[in-house]
Amino acid sequence: MLLIDCPYCGARPELEFVYGGQAHVARPRNPAECSDEQWADFLYWRDNSRGVHAERWRHTHGCGQFFNALRDTTNDHFLATYRVGEAAPALERVARPRT
Ligand SMILES: [Zn+2]
């Protein structure tokens, strides 16, 4: 069973969590000044990278809090979790050697 480390509750089974999309997507400060293309980029376009990805998660069947995680999409390992508003940890600090 995959355990996810909620920054508020600690490690819990993945069944208690819901994926919430890419993390650190900043809403434009003044949407009225955005072009249609800029607004569409904000609403619809997300990274689909292979490797470490910053993601938003929610502990829906626990504390209900949103948080961010660094997850390696190649092996589904969660490298770090951190609270919304905190900066992502440096990859050098959280990266594990591949086995
Ligand atoms: Zn929690």
Would you summarize the structure shown here?
The protein is mainly β.
Write a structural description.
The radius of gyration is 15 Å and the shape is globular. It has helices spanning 36-44, 91-94; strands spanning 3-6, 10-13, 18-22, 52-58, 66-72, 77-83. The chain has a single domain, classed as Folate-binding superfamily (Folate-binding fold, 2-Layer Sandwich). The model has no long low-confidence stretch (mean pLDDT 92). The chain starts with a strand and ends in a 5-residue tail after the last helix. With 99 residues, it is mainly beta. A 4-stranded antiparallel β-sheet has the order 3-4-5-6, with no helix packed on it. Strands 1-2 form a two-stranded antiparallel ribbon. The site of zinc ion has 7 residues, from loops.
CATH class: Alpha Beta
- CATH fold annotation: Folate-binding fold
User: What is the assembly state of the chains in this entry?
Assistant: single chain
Distance between the termini: 19 Å
Instruction: Please tally the β strands and state the result.
Output: 6
CATH superfamily: Folate-binding superfamily
* Small molecules bound in the structure, each named once: zinc ion
Number of domains: 1
Order of helices and strands: EEEHEEEH
Mean pLDDT: 92
Please describe the biggest sheet, giving its number of strands, its sense, and whether it closes into a barrel. 4 strands, antiparallel
How does CATH name the architecture?
Answer: 2-Layer Sandwich
Strand content: 25-35%
